[in-house]
Amino acid sequence: MKLDYSGKHLKTYRIVERANQLLISPFFKAEVNNLLATYCKKELSEEFLAILETEERILVKTTFSPFSKKKIFFKSNSLYVNTLRLKSSHRDALASLMHVVLNVADENHSISKLLDFENQRQKNHFFNEFGAISKSYI
User: Fold this and answer.
1) Measured between alpha carbons, how far is residue 101 from residues 42, 73, 78 in Å?
2) pLDDT tens digits, residue range 29-69?
3) Angle between helices 120-133 and 90-105 (to 10 degrees)
4) Using DSSP, how many helices (H) and how many strands (E) does the chain show?
5) How far from the centroid of its chain's Cα atoms is residue 56's Cα?
6) Cα separations (Å) of 55 from 10, 21, 65, 98?
7) Global pTM?
């Protein structure tokens, strides 16, 4: 996966660039493997990383939505960053972005089927932990 952002909002540009660096980083992949070890077998972690390493490009756009409480959301094959809600630190914004990237990767439920989550709560917990891994790499 690769995120494409061509706008002029500096904070969005920085978190998108950092997310792209993380998605190819061997250190990040090692941390993801450690996280996956608690959810599935070792063989499945290679399939999970293969989903993240696809050639899919995701367009990132900025929006100004004063009535939305979401910082980052996915709609119509694009990620939208609400610049009004992007007041948190770069670490928190990156974690939110990585969480949404995983949701995009799971759009056809390929990750959910692979990891065989018992319920929505377990899935959300995994996605939040995946996003939290990125906080230590900024």
Assistant:
1) 22, 9, 10
2) 888 888 888 877 667 788 888 888 888 899 999 988 888 88
3) 130
4) 6, 4
5) 13
6) 25, 15, 30, 17
7) 0.87
